[in-house]
Amino acid sequence: MHNSRALLAGIAALGLVLATPAMASAGGRHTPAPDPVVRSTQVVAPFNLDVVGKRVYVADGFANTVGRLARDGSIRPVVADAPGASGVERSRDGRTIAFTTTEGGEAAITESGLNLWGSRGSKVYADTLAYETRRNPDRNVAYGVANPSACVQEALADAGLDATYTGIVDSHAYSVAQLGRSWVVADAGANALFTVDRRGRISTLAVLPAQPTRITAEMAAAVGLPDCVVGVTYRFEAVPTDVEVGRDGMLYVTTLPGGPESPVFGARGALWKVNPYSGKAKQIASGFLGATNLALGKKGEIYVAEYFAGAISVVKMGKKSHYLDLANVVAVETGQDGSLWAGTTIALDPSAPQVPGTIVQVTRR
Predict the structure, then answer these.
(1) What are the backbone dihedrals phi and psi of residue 18, each rounded to the nearest 5 degrees, phi first?
(2) End-to-end Cα, the chain, rounded Å
(3) Which residues of the chain are modeled with pLDDT < 70?
(4) What is the arrangement of strands in the sheet containing 239-245, beginning at the earlier edge strand?
(5) Residue 1: inside a domain, yes or no?
(6) Is residue 87 part of a domain?
(7) Global confidence as pTM
C-alpha cells in the first residue's frame, strides 16, 4: 500500500471524514484552551503557517499561493504562483523565504521541491523529485507483508494493494524548517527528511521507519478483506508531514501511517524525535488520527494537528492528551511570544456544511 502520492489529493479524497463529528483524541484532558479567534477566512487549504513576530505567513495549497496575513484578514501575496504550496518558513535573519511546491496529482507527481527566495531577488530551487529519482533513499526498506501466502497476495491485489515491495520513487516536498544555515524538508512521498543548503544541494538526513500494523478481524471486515489476511502484519510507509527544530537542536516530526487514515484502522499517526546528526528517529508519541502538523511550545509541550479527528492534541513528557476541538484543522504553529495559531481547510465533502478555510489564533501572549 503506497503512501499518499500527493497529500493534498489524499486529504481531498478523504474529505468525507470531515462530515463526521469531531472525535476527541485518546488520552487525558489538558487544561481547556480559550475559544479560537478567527483572523482570516480568506484561505482555502492553509497547509502550513509560520509566525514571525507579528507576521503570519501561510502556504495555501489549493489557492497555489504563499501569503502574509493582513490586519483586515486578507492575505497579501508573497508568492502569487506557487503550485501546490504546502510548506513555508521565513529565515531567522528575514532575508529568505522558503516554501515547497508540488505539481501533479495522486497518480503522478510531475514536479516537487523547495524554493528559496532571497530579499534581493535571488531564487534557488532544490528539485526533490530529481533527487529522489536518482537516490530513492528508502529503496531498501521493505513494505507490505513478509512472505505473504498466495491467499494474502491475491486478496491484497484484488484490493489494489501491493503485497510486498520496497521504496518507490516518489516525492512530495511538504514542510520545511530552517536548521542552522541549511533547511530540512519533510518529504511525504520519499518517506524521508532531506537537508537542503543555500545553493539548493540536497542530501538525505533520515529515512523514517516502516509502520507495522497487525490486521484484525474488524479491520479486514471493514475493507472487505478475507479471513486469510486476519493476523497478518502489514508494514505501511511512514509519511512525514511536518518538521520543526527544537531548542535542544533535535528535529520533531509528525507522520501519517501511509494507509487508511479513517478510524477503521485506528489512530496510527505518530510523533518522532530525529537526531539531525545521525538521522536516528525515536517515536515519542502515537495514536494520532491524521497527524498533519506540529508546533513546539515554550515549556516543552508539543501541539499536534489531527486533521481526521478535527482536534489539536498536546504532548507533554511523551503523554498525549486532547487540547482543543477544531474541525478541519490541518496546521498548527507557535509564535515567538508563545501564541498558538492554527489553520483549517474548507469543507471538502459537498454534503457537509460548507465552511471557509480559516486562520485562527488559539491563544495570545
Answers:
(1) -70, -15
(2) 44
(3) 1-34, 106-107, 261-262, 365
(4) 239-245, 251-256, 269-274, 281-288
(5) no
(6) yes
(7) 0.92
